Amino acid sequence: MKTDKLIDALVADHAPRGKPLRWALAAALLAGGLVSFAFFLATLGVRADIEPALGTWRFDLKVGLVLLALGLAFSLCIVLSRPVAPAQPGRLLLPLAALAVLAVAIELSVLPSVSWSNRLVGSNAMVCLVAIPALAIVPLAAVLAILRAGAPASPALAGGAAGLLAAAAAAALYAFHCFDDSPLFVVTWYALAALPVIALGAVVGHRLLRW
Prior knowledge:
Elements: H1 3-14, H2 21-43, H3 50-53, H4 57-80, H5 94-110, H6 116-121, H7 125-147, H8 155-174, H9 183-208
Helix pairs in contact: 2-7, 2-8, 4-5, 4-8, 7-8, 7-9, 8-9
């Protein structure tokens, strides 16, 4: 059997029955996200000043960043679920990096330098570091369960992408509780909070997603 036919056969054998992997992954993320949403409402809740916050460019940019991360991480999971992955899959995240750099540059240009450190540290950095990983656990488990039906060339990379997707979903929820809207805070602390979820996904994926 030729290599390409063998790969096609393996993918077909691992594909979720009755639905493409993309839709199964979306359904799993939604299911995990609903559990996290219930946990979010029970423990954190939406910030009290959400209505005026919705009219500010910093809050809108924060939500835009996490939603872009969510969409790109979803695409990355799909790409890395295949037996032949692109040479540099990380390039899919370049739009997110570009928007993050632009957001930070705008913030630095409109704020006096004496206020940079205060905006960077914010008021609830420790809450961010705990809340995002906690909210990401169930979505991560759901996404990894679906990725087992794929045939990833690198189980660890696919698991890491699952971690990024789960962390982005958690950040999308946490953004509506967080009072720190500065891009300096968001780019720094949201990214730091995502790292343990990505690492956990990579470790579990290395074991769970082998084929």
